[in-house]
């Protein structure tokens, strides 16, 4: 694949590993809808299984291992070249939410009956637009279709997020705290905020987290903030001041001190390492 120009989009029907392009995990973002059978894999050191009627999404360069398929496996797979997708993300904050959600829940059970139809139509529309090379405004319309594709997939992720939210609302205080973190940790970094949301004291929230996970609420907040910091700093289209504003810091100097505390380097030093 490295010797030829990579296609921005590949649509294929897969019945086993041999149907996937070589090294697709590193080159492409993977969207997979399972029609029958099962697919099993290790994702970020955790085992997962996808069955008929479920959707899987892996970012390019995800830590995927031990990928295997049942004998009756069949899936529609859309592969999107990583830079092409990344360059056409329509909204930064929603992109971060979708990224973090997918990193925790790579397998989505489709709760809305329309979602299967939406996924398959979305796959086909993007692939069809790719093939319309004679279009006078080919590059522009393909990029627009890519953005529409992303928005449609975010809609499906949002359905899954809301379903999990309703489940969490009836769950334990610890589970509700983790969900609140997913929703608010971009801007809220104080234990007291989350304790107020749960109508308990900050001390009790720290105790609950320690009992359930071995770490305090403060440590959980810092972990979530760190994930968001890294994603924002990796987006070189944003300058440091814009990132500080996105995370609701009162000043760039305060933001720099916080990044130094969490990442061990300043924002500028972190970005220099990416070069």
TrEMBL record:
Domain of life: Bacteria
Keywords on record: DNA-binding, Transcription, Transcription regulation
InterPro entries on file: Homeodomain-like_sf, HTH_AraC, Tscrpt_reg_AraC-type_HTH
SUPFAM superfamilies linked to this entry: Homeodomain-like
Sections of the chain in a coiled coil: none
Residue ranges occupied by any HTH araC/xylS-type domain in the UniProt entry: 175-273
Annotated PANTHER family: ARAC-FAMILY TRANSCRIPTIONAL REGULATOR, TRANSCRIPTIONAL REGULATORY PROTEIN
Protein name: Helix-turn-helix domain-containing protein
Organismal lineage: Bacteria, Pseudomonadati, Bacteroidota, Cytophagia, Cytophagales
